[in-house]
Amino acid sequence: MSVVTVSNLKGGVGKTALATNLSHAFAKRMCETLLIDLDPQGDASTLFEIVRHVQATTLDSLGTNLFQRFLSQTKNEIREVRDGLYLLDVRRLSAMLQADPLTGEGKLFSRVIESLSMNFDHIVIDTPPVWGNAHRAAFECSDLVIVPVDPSEMSVRAAVGLLNRVSEDMAGAALLVRTLVQSRATRVSRESTRHLQATFEGDGDEAIGNCRPKQVSLKGLSPSSLKIFLSSVALPRSEIVHLLSYRKKTIYEHHALSFIQNAYTLLAKEVEALFAACQPEVEEEDEESSFGELLAF
After folding, report:
1. Which fold, 2-295?
2. Nearest 10 degrees: CA dihedral of 148, 117, 105, 8?
3. Are 190 and 161 contacting, i.e. CB atoms less than 8 angstroms apart?
4. Is 53 left (phi over 0), alpha (psi -120 to 50) or beta?
5. How far apart are the C-alpha atoms of 151 and 21, rounded to whole Å?
């Protein structure tokens, strides 16, 4: 079981599209997947037509035995939106996300995720674009943070800022994924790739985009236990994907998007392989070999 948080401190980088389509990719791979919508805008929930006008739950309204009541109300909000794909819209519980006990010693959110993880293969968390307690709570219980990066310089800068914050709150791994990439090479896409390479130092001479995630280091980042990887997958830009959001569909529900579907399926396999490779090893194993075997599945 893995907990994956999708985050960037810049809007418009394809964060929610990545979270929803990656979640559906996991479900297509026969993995029971829970998508948690932490963004107050509720874009992921709106895509799956989970739109309800309800009163927010507050600490006072929960009374005694805070954790059990919070867990019970959380489970009651989970809905199956596609085969094997479940959604938790926490806008109703938004007041809890701003409460000190959530990120304090009580760590309610982490305990809820730990409890929910017993029922799912993957949990994917979509976060707001503005830094807050929701991010800290998500990072504390995540195995992997996926950071979408579009071709703009502002997106790369926002990703760097996020990684500096992430390194303070978690000891897992971060995966940079290029989004909104033009299907054919352009001056902007080439400049974006050069900027990424200039910002992150790779281990070895392997070029960006070669088959498997590449471990890199962020220049100027203080030493931490956070491992940073650059995905081999580039998610292409497509007007059809934007159109599908109006039709309340994911990329797996359109017949003419096989090239984007393949990209997300490969990303799902890459995330699973990365998660497995970063786990403590019982026996010594060649990392290159393990990546190849897992990606072949």
Report:
1. Rossmann fold (3.40.50)
2. 10
3. no
4. beta
5. 20
